[in-house]
Batch of 2 targets.
Target 1
Amino acid sequence: MTKHTCYVCKKIFTKAIYWYDSLHDTKYDKRIIRPFCGPPCANQYREMSDENNYPQRRPLPRGPEWQIIQDINYIQYESD
Ligand SMILES: [Zn+2]
């Protein structure tokens, strides 16, 4: 199972339910996943990030890097 580092509090954990995915966001031209350990960190991220200021990516990009991710607990991904 993948070990995640919470983007907000840096806690290491497994079984991520919340994450940011740059698939939907025109701010980044590559795939970035930012896991959050739980709702408080996910909410805090929403408040501190400016991602909502960028338009949604439409249509969604194609290619292996841009597959829809349903679950990040069994994959390798790039974070920052
Ligand atoms: Zn956290």
Target 2
Amino acid sequence: MNRLSLFIVLTIAMVCQAQDDLRLNDLEYFERQGVNVLVYSNSFNGGFNDEKNSGIEIIHHGVRTVQGGAVRLNNTPEQWDLVPTMTSRKVNRENGSIEVGLRYNDYDFDSRIIVTAKGKAVEIAVWLDKPVPEKLAGEAGLNIEFLPSQYWLKTYQIDGRLGRFPRYATSLTTTRPNSEKPRQFKGFKTYDDRGTNRFVDPLPLETGHSLTVATDAPDRMIRITSDDAELKLFDGRMLAQNGWYVVRSVLPAGKTGKVVTWTIEPNAIPGWIRDPNIGFCQVGYTPEQPKVAVIELDKHDPVQTGSASLLRLNPDGTTTEVYKAEVKPWGPYFKYNYVKFDFTHVRESGVYCIQYGATRTNDFLIDEHVYDKITDATTDVWVPIHMNHMYVTEGYRTWHGEPFKEGYLQAPESDHFDLHRQGATTDTKYKPLELIPGLNIGGFFDAGDFDIETGSNINVVQNFIRTWELFHPQRDETFVSQEQRYVELHRPDGKPDIMQFIEHGVLNLVAQAEQIGHMASTLSNSVLDNYHHLGDAASITDGLHYDPSLKPYEVSADGKSSGTPDDMWAFTTRNPNLDLQAAGVFYSAARVLRGYNDTLAERAQKQADRLTTEARELQRGSRFRRDRQAETDNDWLTGTGDGNYRNVARNLQTMLDSIPLKDAAYREKLRPMVQQYAEYIKSFDTQNPYGVPIGLGNWAGVNAVLNFGITVNYAHIYYPDIVSKDEVYRVANWLFGCHPYHNYSFVAAVGAARPKQVFYGNNRADFSFIPGNVAPGLLFRKPDHFENYDDWPFLWGQNEGTIAGNTQYIIFGSSFKNIVGTNQ
Ligand SMILES: [Ca+2]
Ligand SMILES: [Ca+2]
Ligand SMILES: [Ca+2]
């Protein structure tokens, strides 16, 4: 070999080497094909202290399987354990490193983490300018967490010893004095120590200096080594079902400088390209509707064009290609490229699938009736299961017994969890911790938790009333007895279910107004250790009145009270805005309930009048909500509104809702606004490949998408010449599978061929769902990643359905079905 060819060989070798290495990209994360290492692109915010979304994260072959890289104070941090605040983040392009400053204010404890690219690996080093505070010595450590559902049953090796990640948490634990436990969120405790004054601490599965995880799965294999610290492997699920596997090195006491160094090398499959994600409507398509699949492609995928086919699955088991067309490029959107496959002109009823390259979708229907049942699971199953203060049963299964039989106590002053707060005064006649009678009736569980958020419950009743007044659904699949406090699914009782749901919601809201004198902000858990309850709602509290004169866990001789402080609290700080909202819904409820439950209608009317008078008194000078709406309305009609799309979107629905009450001239005056709205709808075709508003917040955007869908539906109903019927399918497509990341329907168990399988419902510990739930959807992780886990239910931002959102879905679905069923 001469010098020139040696030079060429070396140069090629160096280029190949460099291409394989992790590089700091323009979006400030380390990247090589198949591997992204993010360093505090998403930082801990402490808001809900639900932090499986932050710190050092690894997106490994398209899936975010590792996160939580940080200095933490626990072996296996739970939600509500303290999280570090990021005080600084510096990107050093010259030496390919990112440095973050982390601080625990509660302990005046600062540390720095420096992550540096080293070939195919990153070095993670913890630096201390001052030693670990004495109180945290032995507790503060460098942690990183691995997603259980992607690692369980896979093997690991540590210093040559073999193991397998457990499918279920079964490792060893110890207990330690509470005095040794680092403080939790606002001083609350996630655990009930049963009077032992000790907390549970998991023991490691293994310890060593060189750990390789998923030795049997190249797409998940990661090697971690440390010369200066011992690596410990824990199972975080020992304390909490939403825990992850944790690798941890305790920071040495009394030292400064570079105190812990890890090298982490995620394996990359050479030339890995993510499979195309063919987004389509899993519920299916009606013959005449537009049918456009959106195909999400890896940026390294050499094929960004070509054709896709529609295949029909014939009753004799054969497959026929019925349509083939070139896909149309849409372009890049965040980290992927997008093309579209339009098969609108296929109208024949049948069973089909889509083929693009080597990827073939599951089957779906084209048929006149595909959308007929889209709201049934939500109305017949999800909603009744969320009825509070009732025993709820279905076939052989009891969903929950009657919760909170002991009622609700007046909340004392508290800066509480779940965003709740009780001010210094109660604003009621009750003393702190005194029983407020009569509140344990009616109402709906908030979401994946069991509190009654009053604002949400007002929305729920509003949504049901709106559904009733618009569609008068007579559907009767639920038995509801307020007398027996008993609900049975799939047992008709001769009464329309929606009316029974309205009644159930109003019963709690009216009780609040009557018993408290105004609306509570919430009826919620008093202690954190029963707030995270997973299981039968009736077992959250012991059903016995709390009597502080008894010893903890002692039951009184008459069996009616106990010394366990588990009773729920009513948070009663008065908010005239909330009272006015309640008054608004009481007026509507009185209108709807008259003739159905006259007594309740009268009670609602009485409270509406009283709350309105008193709230106006309290807020002298401010206006009733309805007046504000009328004012906005008026701005539009006189042309003084600012006229931007966002305002149009916000206000149009209110005006559309009032059309039936107004004259033809009003409808005519709204036309320019609807024309503007039609442009707004179209604007989404250039904003993203899916044609709907996509949210980038810490709660994925389903509420905004549903709002958009409802407004589009009504704009079409009243102005079909401006907003065509084709537009109403946008939101259905998105909800039922045409979206990024995967193509599963976001609505649990609804008529789709492939609905999502796990949701953050109150049965999430079973990796299950409650039928009819609507997931928040695609959670955006900065800087460029959309995510919706379908094997891990525990991230509320992507998988939790709420009572307000799911009743909004009923309005969307009902109006959508109405439009699809007509030939406008
Ligand atoms: Ca809640
Ligand atoms: Ca019924
Ligand atoms: Ca109790």
